[in-house]
Design a protein that fits this description.
2-enoyl-CoA Hydratase, Chain A, domain 1; 3-stranded mixed beta sheet; single chain
Length: about 290
């Protein structure tokens, strides 16, 4: 995946982008990190560099806000980003999603103490993207799509309804590869279960209606259910389906903060996003902090 080369962005635009980011930092009294584009190898290294450089003046704040806009990518990359961000900000990381954070981006957002969206923002179904090597190179493929197809073929065979085309398709599936897809599927659930329980649910002490005391097991079970709901292809119908703040809140009972209700913040975010979209192609990855470009 291509990176957004800093050398291709003129000094005036760089200064404007950084000032727009600093305005968000001042408004929220938090450090801000922007991550745009696909989450593939090298992005986590740039996140590390960006956060390491925030040791310089002004001093590092206690909270981090990550402005995240991504079509998805690798679970490995998402996991390493969490490892880095929590090293520097163990107590509070918030994700602000102005547009979309799909697939691995959704998994990454679940590691936040807070998730901020508005009516236009969306997360996506969790369908791990797994690198598949072939004679003509390698590409990332959606694991759940392959597993769903395999289960369909198995069911057809069990009922004696397999066509010749189905038999040919089944013979081309690699069982070792399918097992790898299953492991990635299960890992995505475990990551969300761990991160939601540890971070977003850490202050969930009583249930909303009955005021019953919330136990560690209740947090874990609730997190596991949300992960399974997000991974249901039958429920969402498509890997690219956008899941809005309203659906996440009302159907999945996941608390989402509406950043459009914070006076002054929407305008600052739109200014930053508008500048960024002028200079960074959608297919490129881009990491930005006040000290790193």
């Amino acid at each position: 995946m291509a990176e957004a080369p800093p050398s291709s962005i003129d000094a005036i635009t760089r200064t404007a982008l950084t000032e727009a980011l600093k305005n968000i930092e001042k408004h929220r009294d938090a450090d801000v990190l922007a991550i745009f584009g696909p989450l593939y190898a090298s992005v986590e290294n740039r996140v590390r560099q960006a956060l390491e450089m925030l040791d310089g003046p002004p001093s590092r704040r206690k909270r981090l806000i990550i402005i995240l806009d991504t079509p998805g990518g690798s679970i490995d990359t998402a996991e390493r980003i969490v490892q880095v961000t929590r090293h520097f900000y163990p107590d509070h990381v918030a994700f602000l999603v102005p547009d979309r954070a799909m697939s691995a981006g959704t998994i990454l957002a679940m590691s936040g103490d807070e998730i901020w969206m508005d009516y236009y923002s969306c997360l996506g179904p969790i369908d791990p993207q797994v690198e598949r090597r072939a004679d003509d190179g390698s590409r990332f493929v959606p694991a759940l799509g392959y597993l769903d197809q395999y289960e369909r073929l198995q069911a057809a065979a069990a009922k004696g309804r397999m066509t010749q085309a189905d038999a040919i398709l089944l013979s081309k599936l690699d069982l070792a590869e399918l097992r790898r897809f299953e492991l990635e599927r299960d890992r995505s659930i475990e990551l969300i279960k761990d991160w939601l329980s540890r971070y977003k649910f850490k202050n969930w002490s009583t249930t909303r209606t009955t005021r019953k005391k919330v136990t560690k097991l209740m947090r874990s079970n609730r997190a596991a259910q949300i992960a399974k709901d997000l991974q249901s292809l039958k429920r969402w119908g498509s890997h690219s389906r956008g899941i809005t703040m309203e659906v996440l809140t009302n159907d999945l009972n996941l608390v989402i903060d509406d950043y459009s209700q914070i006076p002054g913040l929407p305008e600052l975010v739109r200014t930053y996003i508008g500048l960024m979209r002028q200079v960074v192609p959608p297919q490129n990855s881009f990491v930005h902090s006040r000290m790193f470009f």
